């Protein structure tokens, strides 16, 4: 029973392309998050959203934007992909009253490994 | 400067061994999480701790708030325990350790 689904497991894009990473959750969670994971750096928060059409910058938002038009879907957008955005991207969600930036009971997706060439 | 430090970074064990992974943090926290990430990327939350000790099957997690330290223990390790284990703490934001890569050899 998959609860947080990321649309692609592996993705290869060219430098300068606009890239969309999609995340869908079926738990009716208010909060959704995008992280990237790099060797030696761990997980770093890019953006999060605590409600439809709401978004907040995380620790490393530069070069990224997000869209949350529906509660269940949170999209990460790379406006012009660059090689330093090659990484593993992880989406997560959490329920109400649990604050922002990731809290108790959050669920991760399986990740999207993006390579920018 | 890392707010969360894990040790060791890499660990290889024989099946059946008792394993300990350590996590130290430098910020005030309200909760600490242990996460497990299998090859392929998926992450699951193993434990959320704010004090004391929790046990789930062969996994035990402890936390000492005064010493700002937590340990994850795996008893009777098995090859299926091979994964990256990540410590995460919640203060005014979430901080993640860089993970401990565990390989259990049959």
Question: What does the model show?
Answer:
The complex is a heterodimer of chains A (117) and B (106). Chain A has strands at residues 4-6, 10-13, 19-25, 31-38, 42-49, 56-57, 64-70, 73-78, 87-94, 107-108, 112-116. Chain A is mostly beta strands and 117 residues long. The termini of chain A are far apart. Chain B is an all-beta fold and 106 residues long. Chain B has strands at 4-7, 10-14, 19-25, 31-37, 43-49, 52-56, 59-64, 69-74, 83-90, 94-96, 100-105. In chain B, strands 2, 4, 5, 9, 10 and 11 form a six-stranded mixed beta sheet that branches. In chain B, β7 and β8 (69-74) form a beta hairpin. The A-B interface holds A 9, 40-45, 59, 88, 90, 92, 101-113 and B 4, 31, 33, 35, 40-45, 48, 86, 88, 90, 93-94, 96-99.
Mean pLDDT of chain B, to the nearest integer, reads 91
How big is the Rg of chain A? 13 Å
Could you spell the SSE succession of chain A in H and E letters?
Answer: EEEEEEEEEEE
Tell me the Rg of chain B in angstroms. 13 Å
Overall strand count of chain A? 11
| Number of discrete helical segments of chain A | 0
Inertia-based shape of chain A: globular
Distance between the termini of chain B: 37 Å
**What is the 3D shape of chain B?**
globular
Q: First CA to last CA of chain A: what distance?
A: 34 Å
- Into which percentage range does the β-strand content of chain B fall? over 45%
